[in-house]
Amino acid sequence: MDERKRVYLFGDSEAEGRSDMKNLLGGKGANLAEMNLVGVPVPPGFTITTEVCTEYNTIGKEKAVELMRAEVENGIKHVEKIMSSKFGDKENPLLVSVRSGARVSMPGMMDTVLNLGLNDDAVEGIAKKSGNERFAWDSYRRFVQMYGDVVLGMKPESKEDIDPFEAIMEEQKEKRGIELDTDFTVEDLKELVAKFKAAVTKQTGKNFPNNPWDQLWGAVMAVFDSWNTDRAIYYRTMNKIPGEWGTAVNVQAMVYGNMGTNSGTGVAFTRDAGTGEDIFNGEYLIDAQGEDVVAGVRTPQQITLEGSKRWAVLANVSEEERAEKYPSLEELMPKVYKELDIIQQKLEDHYNDMQDLEFTIQDGKLWLLQTRNGKRTGAAMVRMAIEMLEQGRIDEKEAVMRVEPNKLDELLHPVFDKDAMKEAKVLTKGLPASPGAATGQLVFFADECAKYKDAILARIETSPEDLEGMNIANGILTARGGMTSHAAVVARGMGKCCVSGAGELKIDYKARILTVGNETFNEGDWVSLNGSTGELYKGSIDTIDPELSGDFGKLMELADKYSRMYVRTNADTPHDSQVARDFGAKGIGLCRTEHMFFEGEKIVAMREMILAEDLEGREAALDRLLPIQQKDFEGIFEAMHDLPVTVRLLDPPLHEFVPHDEKGQQEMADVMGVTVDVIKQKVEDLSEFNPMLGHRGCRLGNTYPEITVMQTRAIIGAAIALKKRGINAHPEIMIPLTGTLAEMKMQEDIVRDTIAKVFEETGETIEHLVGTMIEIPRAALTADKIAESAEFFSFGTNDLTQMTFGYSRDDAGKFLPIYIEKGILKNDPFEVLDQEGVGQLVEMAVERGRQTRPDIKLGICGEHGGEPSSVEFCHRTGLDYVSCSPFRVPIARLAAAQATIR
Ligand code: ADP
Ligand code: MG
Ligand code: MG
Q: Of 361, 381, 377, 379, nearest to 369 (Cα)?
């Protein structure tokens, strides 16, 4: 048996724990200890460590109890001494609460049991001692109910039923013709306790435990067990909390907010958790206990007068009624309020962060029961960080560290108008695939999105062909597919609202109708999507552009001041480029050229090029594509003037561009003056078993050099055209999918020859770079060789992940979710860069590339470039920049700064 300490005491301004012992004592326990140390009134108690929970899970109940018994008994003695009462005593009983508390606050864990230690004898003792029989029986009623629910597992019989105890209470209220719990008489309460106990015996087959020690051990074990309930495990998986952590148990002397009109309980925040405003706020209830405020048993009242007045306006309550029926604590108990106000300030000063507090007033005396750094919205997070910096509470680096990069996402997307939301009707729910709010008219085909100014594209699922329509639509809705479905990934990339996998939707493409339940919608009907919650609404809901506050700007400035890397964007259109630039992008890290070919007349010329019989036919089609492509680049280079733009040459398999439908094939036959059968045959010839590993990337440019020539001409031509207008373009030409030096070198030669020709023809020159994407493992392994030809590397970590794992990104949806659920993989490697495996290849390529070419420019352009933990990896690996979709630019800027500061 080892001698480790399993129980930590606190009380009377002393404590064995501290706030920095959260791993051992849990967040709640550590802060209860700390509050004692800073002189805040806290009921005495003790904390059983998280290590005991882990022990319990391995050695079982009996042995775990033996290991901690003496320390727990000593803990109870400690509390008895301070409270001058005795656990299990008839005359003067000590009652305690038993509270769970993990390292991080975790909804889904066990609910707290209050008033533990009560039985038929103790209730009389409490009644006599307090001179308040009603209070004694109210506490007893609450205890039997909570213990029954939480420890004895009293559950409703079916999901339609309500809690068995609630049902009994409702019955009693009806019988007596009352509405509120405060209207119960002593006799009512006695009756309720008896009925509750009978219900326990009936449902569990066991009598309610009378002995306080049995009650205590039962509750402690229930807290440990709650660590492994389904809902706790689900929450942990969702938030990546390790199962080994365990929970602590806090046992603490009760203080009573239910002693009458001079008592109460409440919750408070030292700043506004929604907006970040530096204003003390919160709610309380008179003659109430524990969760009554949160559970909404009665309308809670505001703590401050200012808050109360603001509330009355929103709730449509007159000043008269407010003052009479819902006075603030400030008005009702000015002395207690003053003390609370001093304590909240003291706690915020001490922790130097916004605090979320729980307090109870027992007969005019204030007690604090919990403090923690409060949860907050993205907007509040930014405002608090900047204001705390300006108030001199924290320094610049700390302000940068205070904001979770991913939370910025909330600030960047259009939002529904709050008032309009209230009227809206929810039709169904899918997955919150891409945040934001969108309203528009239903369209079922991507190529018809342009019919409406505001379109919502509804599809069973989407495919790459739908891209243009997706880009035009305000939002995307799919009946099938998960968080990594095509629709979801593309929408997130575009920063476009998307709800995916809404399984209740029935879409009939033929009839052009969508049905949900018994509601039917036609094309053109208005619906709204909330991509942050996955909800689909009937009708239109007004959206407003998010307002980017001055604080946001200040935060971004600080981020740039402290980060070593800079941030570029992945953008294929002038519009996206501009958006990204406004978000602070310092260039384009990936401009894909294939998307450009899908629009209007371009697709016809592109198809002609692909379907051409011979070189001559291809060149003729390319000649027509050249000016159109050059115009595209001019638009992008102009939007990105003075900043570098990495353009990737054609990458996808040609098969993706050709028509697969009869109508499209006929059209091409007409245009090219051949029979449909010829076209059909060509299309068939192009199809591949594994297109991702097939004829694509630089393999296209090396087999059809004329494509590379055309694209190079378009890029350099565009830069020269702009130069003549006094606009600076900095093109960087990127060869996709190289795996060997020879492959790269051949492309490089074509590109450089072409550039030399263009320079000669025009008499102009343009500064430029030629480099490659590193996305094939062989390229990473031979990076020293490839760097002989490439002036820059951009890590295409989407393909690199795909090829390193051997997972097809388009098919991974079938097994990845299961792999994550079973713990085979911790994260989706397409979302969070796999540092252990794929990361090694990146590190290797960086090292070998620099050996050959010390000044080689290094960046990443996979989706990982906007994911904070991956950005940190890129920083550590020594990349020069990360590139991500426009809406993730601020997130990446902040993550890059945090990586540098860490
Ligand atoms: P949660 O983690 O769900 O907030 P808590 O353990 O904080 O659960 O407790 C639930 C409620 O019971 C809170 O309102 C808390 O203030 C109250 N409470 C907990 N312990 C005591 C106590 N010893 N005396 C009075 N109220 C308590
Ligand atoms: Mg709490
Ligand atoms: Mg690729």
A: 361
